[in-house]
Design brief:
2 domains; five-stranded antiparallel beta sheet
């Protein structure tokens, strides 16, 4: 199952790139389930098609479904969530409004392993960086930009607090946390300073949804 899911995911990314070049919505993005009867569910399948096994379901009124890639035919969406994620028919998903492709997706939760760390970027320009045993550092966003002269695929955010600061470079590309099969559509590289020490950390990000 892991080999099949991984192969399909890479094929999906190629389709997603074609969609982006054609002016379609950049991913990842949050969607809501639509068009499903209240007494029914939306099947999440192992691959992009009805011939694949059902691995999970989404409620008829499910919200904040993170889509990380589309298949080549644009008919199926790869959704994050449980281990390995899964595929749902795109016609039953509607992209949430207010997500600007030209800005860093937010709110956003990034994390890494070896060492373990997390960066919680809220939508109000505040952020929290945390490490096991290292406490939490409250930060505020000083500035944010997308890469110049290119589609908004790469972003940089500079954050600072009273004792610590960091620069996060976040890119729209597939990412693995090295511990699970959960699909991520954003990769993070974080350079820390001050009380956090001068380090370069790597990790993945996802859109948690459910927050304004």
């Amino acid at each position: 199952m892991k080999i099949l899911t991984g192969t399909v995911f890479w094929l999906a990314l190629a389709g997603s790139a074609l969609a982006q070049a054609a002016g379609e919505t950049l991913l990842p993005a949050l969607f809501d389930v639509v068009g499903v009867r209240a007494d029914d569910v939306l099947n999440v399948r192992q691959g992009p098609g009805v011939g694949f096994a059902v691995v999970d379901t989404l409620a008829a009124d499910a919200r904040d479904v993170e889509v990380v890639a589309l298949d080549e035919r644009m008919g199926w969406a790869h959704v994050a969530g449980t281990e390995g994620g899964g595929w749902v028919a795109l016609r039953y998903l509607k992209r949430q409004p207010g997500q600007e492709d030209g800005r860093l997706p937010q709110p956003l939760l990034c994390s890494g392993t070896e060492p373990f760390w997390s960066l919680d970027l809220a939508g109000d320009d505040s952020a929290v960086f945390a490490e096991p045993g290292g406490g939490e550092h409250l930060l505020s966003r000083q500035w944010e930009r997308s890469a110049e002269g290119a589609p908004p695929m790469d972003f940089v955010a500079v954050l600072a607090g009273t004792r610590a600061s960091l620069t996060a470079v976040i890119s729209r590309e597939s990412c693995s946390d090295g511990m699970s099969d959960r699909p991520y559509g954003l990769r993070a590289r974080v350079a820390t300073d001050g009380a956090l020490g001068r380090r370069l950390l790597r990790g993945c990000c996802y859109l948690p949804g459910g927050r304004e």
